[in-house]
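Please describe our next protein:
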Amino acid sequence: MNKKPLQELLPSLRSGPDGESSWFDWLTDPLPKRFMLPATGLLIMGLDWLLFSEEAASFGLLIPFTSVVGFLAGSIGTYLLQTRHGLDSKPAACLKGLLAGILVGIPFPLAGTLAGGAILASSGLAGLRWRFLKGQFSSPAKSPKAAAK
């Protein structure tokens, strides 16, 4: 009658010498339900803003060049982040890299901004929730900072 709720696997606790994980860990630690890492979302948004925010100054003459550079940088960067930190298989990381490259290569800054923001919202907020809960339920006696107080 009483069903136990499904338990969600949590990531391993990689923590530094002070018992807290760093912001880099939050950006690159894979969680079970993440499609892409928050670092990948930041990469897509950053490249999009960097490459296409100043197109008005060149009267659109550099759009073919910046689209190709954006596609290559988005694809390669996403592939490397997803294989090294996201622990994705090479074919899955290649498909995610292709998707990110297309989103960055579209010569409108809004496309990458929306996609990067959606990736950050879907994957990054779960990581922030985990960091908050980990800090809330960790014992203060185990922390070196708490022992010094």
Q: What stands out?
A: The mean pLDDT is 77. The first helix runs from residue 23 to 28. Residues 35-56+63-137 form one domain. The chain has six helices and no strands.
